[in-house]
Amino acid sequence: MDPCVREARESDLDRILQLIVDLASYEKSAHEVKTTTKQLRTALFGPQPAAYALVAEWDKQVVGLALYFRNFSTWEGVHGLYLEDLYVMGEYRGFGLGKALLMSLAELTLERGYARLEWAVLDWNQPAIDFYRSIGAVPMDEWTVYRLSGAALAAAAATPVTS
Amino acid sequence: MDPCVREARESDLDRILQLIVDLASYEKSAHEVKTTTKQLRTALFGPQPAAYALVAEWDKQVVGLALYFRNFSTWEGVHGLYLEDLYVMGEYRGFGLGKALLMSLAELTLERGYARLEWAVLDWNQPAIDFYRSIGAVPMDEWTVYRLSGAALAAAAATPVTS
After folding, report:
1. Shortest distance, CA B44 to any CA of chain A (angstroms)
2. What is the DSSP letter of A60?
3. A35–B77 C-beta distance less than 8 A
4. At what angle do helices B37-45 and B13-26 cross, to 10 degrees?
5. Looking at beta carbons, which residues of chain A come within 8 Å of B110?
6. Which residues lie below 8 Å from residue B119, measured CB to CB, with a gap of 6+?
7. What CATH code is assigned to B4-158?
8. Does the pLDDT value for residue B163 go beyond 50?
9. So what's the ipTM on this one?
10. What is the pLDDT of residues B38-64, one digit of tens each?
């Protein structure tokens, strides 16, 4: 059985949400997923898509997901792709589906003339890190992402700009 | 003189590119900026903008820049804003322009019902880190961004998906 990677369709929505929750569980954060099928439909298939998805099939079942969006490099002057979620269901790992999803995304990046493909990895996820290094991905070791959300975001938003 | 933060206009393009190069110099990477004014015009003011910019003025001169784009949270089901470049020219630092740009972006994030504002910081940029922590931004310490580009991207793209 060969893996099949294709663009996600609207009929995949429930399954995609399930894969998002499964991935969050693996990251010990399933309780943090608040996304509804309706929100996901708007994001992926609405008039102005916020994100895009490839799915991997095995035996006609969707068992893997690569959810991504476009970012922008001020140094290169062109887009890149940012892979937000890459996930393959536990019992289907080891058959090359994750690799197939990532390689398909690399192909898409290059086809469109974009400069780079990026994604974030949890520092304790050694099997993933080993795989990413093996294909030549470079860790942005010097950089840390900062996040403003919740009460701190609201407080910042309420700060007068002139002072 | 109060700082003024406003949306970037097409007439700001040359100045915006200069600020991008200045920031890259500060990050010891000016030689890596390949972006042209034309690319930047398409990205910021084309029919399908890839990115957006706020500028800070001092004495009617553009001296600061916040360049950002929309990302997407699969856990929240909504957009966030990702601040790609935040920069204020050296001689105009200390007057609150950087803070005014960031707070304006926080306001925009909240107004649109987005979940969060994120950005990456160089680990040796302690003044910036201190400032970001002081407003309640949280470092995503457990995560590292991996990047696939150049020859490694081309090799990945050429890998057959079925094997």
Report:
1. 10
2. T
3. yes
4. 110
5. 153-154, 157
6. A145, A146, B82, B83, B84, B86
7. 3.40.630.30
8. no
9. 0.90
10. 999 999 999 888 899 999 999 999 999
